[in-house]
What does this fold into?
Amino acid sequence: MPFIDSETIDAVSRTVDIVSLIGEYTKLEPSGVDSFKGCCPFHHEKTPSFSVSRDKKVYHCFGCGVGGNVFTFIQEQEKIGFLESVEFLARKLNIPIKYKEGSASQSELDPTFKLKREYMELYDRVTTSFHYWLTETPQGKHALEYITGRGITIETINKFRLGYAPKEKTWLKRFLEKKNFSDDFLKGSGLFSRNYPDIAFFTNRLMFPIFDRQGDVVAMGGRQLEKSPNSPKYLNSGDLIQFKKGETLYAFNFARKAIKEAKKVVFCEGYMDCICYHQSGIEYAVAPLGTSLTEEQIKLVSPFVEEVILSFDSDKAGEKATWRAILMLRKAGLTTKVINIEGGKDPAELMLNFGKEALTGMVNNAILDSDFLLSRLGDLYPVDTPEGKAKAIEAFFPYVESLRSSVQKDACLDQLSRTFNIRLEAVRKDFHNRRNAENGRIKYREPDPTQHKTEEKNLRLTAELRSVLAIVADLNRFRTMRSQLTENDFEDPYAKELYIILEECFSQNSLSLNSILNRCKDRRMSSLITDIVTNGEFADYTEKAVNDSVRLIKRRSLERQRDKVLELIRTFKPLTEDDKEYMDKLLAEKMQIDIKLRK
It folds into this structure.
């Protein structure tokens, strides 16, 4: 492979435990001698269809069809390329990385990767500086007093690497220029004003570093310390080359282990709430970074949890976020509860006033989302009137619609009828009439993109492709195939591509399942390979079957060659002596093909 030496790739492949690695992204349980199963981290499901083989070092989902090895898994999960995935795993396993083309690293050869790593190093350096300003300087004293005054301990401050961005607006630019950072590089960092590149984006703010899954600082959030009508209370980094807000959860790097152990997660409003939960011993809390909860953020936790607890503020914006989150989580098939905050406006105030036990009790007493919604609808609408009841019931229907189970839907309609004292038959009728009315309004339905993906993910299994796949399932038989065939004998382009990959691996003395998967550019091919390896489709494929398929491929190749020669003979009209010589060559070629076909 280019840039990174094959020794490094092989070392990573040998060393990595695919079960432990994937276990960081989804919960896996033993299922046989070498098989582990869990819910697929690539799509929402409640019944596990995701299989991992420790010995073969491959995974495959029988639900959505994805499959591959450790490198393809990391590529998909971390949204990076192959070479980045190798470096990612090598760093994780403390394996020295050897490079081709001299001593150049991938970071030097790949501009995008280099830039991402450099910005992450920059943010780490700036985080250290902000932390120093908060904990060691007179300028940061008021920020330190503020955060400790809210009950946050020095231990927690150090754990989350909290900091202070000074009032002085140009110090950061001067500081970083002295460290030899260029203007162009700093301009794209997100740390400075777009219109005024010398002015720091964060000034006089309590700083919250945002970490990625591995614990690297990728972005910043800052809380206002002095009220200003022209400045927001919280200021957050926008999307950067190393950071996508909608794909990141604050404190997930700290919470991941606890989430797996507790099988639940608390989604809270912001940085402070999340930190207070952690300090109170509720370490499975995360925050969606000031944005509405996204499907990507749900996907980060859904493989590990059986229960989601929402802890958003009780103001109008918080209730809107709670409602939206409930619908998204239920559509994802996740049991959802809601915390009713009493005794304070948020968890941070509650912890300060009543101690960590108050937060623990609040989490333990979280109520089911249906109970929460029905209670709020009773407050929002005048349910003592027929019109008010009708509006409340109508507002509850989207929740019922979001439920996956028909049993759940029926139970919720029953709960709805009892809550507002309406006949169940009437509630059911209005619910079904609503659904029918909505369906009637849909004049044109856009093609389902998931259906399109499903159609595309499956390659057409021709006899040629099946033959090469059978070889992949038992690589010891490749010598038999290559002794009789070349890449030109294949008509199916996918079979040809796979044969070329096998030949490359064989020639480089690296014929293994992982080496093959590393060279597969088409993810559909990777998934197909892992599928046949995982389900043992060719386990009974005999040596005779291999020879028969090879002979068939060769025969069809010869027949195609003969047809081409015959076509040339039929259409060619010799006029000169050279033409006659060419015709003789064509006839001789046909004769040789006929001899081979008769064997």
